[in-house]
UniProtKB/TrEMBL annotation:
SUPFAM superfamilies: Periplasmic binding protein-like II. Pfam families: SBP_bac_11. This is Molybdate ABC transporter substrate-binding protein. InterPro entries: ModA/WtpA (IPR050682). It comes from Lelliottia amnigena (Enterobacter amnigenus).
Length: 227
């Protein structure tokens, strides 16, 4: 079975597949780019996206047989610890013009799209942050992130930026990384990221059913996702 899956699922996907009885070949990447490849005819049985829009586009195009939501996520802000001042919170940090802010690439990667929604919810402050933000990962021409390294860690430790907005499912791992501080982004500013499956062929139905099972939901929760 051939699966195309959003890069943010890479860590948890291996745990999910070990509990599934059939062999699965999975390729990861930014969900927007994967959707384009599937629409262009690339062979795939199941598409696991970090948003609803891309699977729904495949359904509307007649490429998918069904769309099934299965998980959720939020955003968080990761900061290089030594640049923080006493009293800094997530909003103060995003307004600090002395710090470089990195994000994923909107249009190619849903994380980038959710970040744009965050900026919209922040109003004037968000517009200013958007103008300064650097889309460094998840794009067609973005540099490859080293294997075993999270995007926020790589961007900050390599000196490309002091802050990164990314998925909260990575927060626990990032908090264990020396030199990084992770801040939650509260409601109502934080967008609700909805993950969904596009079932493209009949052979993918059993895997889709498993990913919706109670067993799979426990694995997703333990990995930092909502269900």
């Amino acid at each position: 079975m051939r699966v195309q899956a959003a890069g943010s699922l890479r860590g948890v996907w291996a745990q999910l597949i070990t509990h599934f009885s059939e062999p699965v070949e999975t390729h990861f990447g930014p969900a927007g780019i994967l959707q384009e490849r599937i629409l262009a005819g690339e062979e795939c049985d199941l598409f696991a996206s970090a948003n609803l829009a891309h699977p729904q586009a495949l359904l509307a195009a007649g490429r998918a047989q069904a769309v099934v939501p299965f998980a959720s996520n939020k955003l968080c802000l990761t900061v290089r610890s030594d640049v923080m001042h006493v009293g800094d919170d997530w909003r103060v940090l995003l307004n600090r013009t002395d710090l470089r802010l990195a994000t994923s690439t909107a249009g190619c990667d849903p994380s980038g799209d959710y970040t744009q929604e965050l900026f919209n919810r922040m109003g004037v402050e968000g517009h200013a942050a958007r103008q300064r933000a650097l889309a460094l990962v998840g794009g067609r021409n973005s540099a490859l992130i080293p294997t075993g390294t999270l995007a926020a860690q790589w961007v900050i430790e390599s000196g490309q930026a002091e802050m990164f907005i990314g998925y909260a499912s990575y927060a626990n791992t990032l908090r264990q990384t020396e030199g990084l501080t992770v801040l939650a982004i509260p409601e109502p500013f934080n967008p609700h990221a909805k993950y969904a499956l596009a079932v493209l062929t009949p052979k993918a139905q059993r895997l889709a059913e498993f990913i919706q099972s109670k067993e799979a939901k426990v694995i997703l929760l333990e990995a930092g996702f909502g269900v």
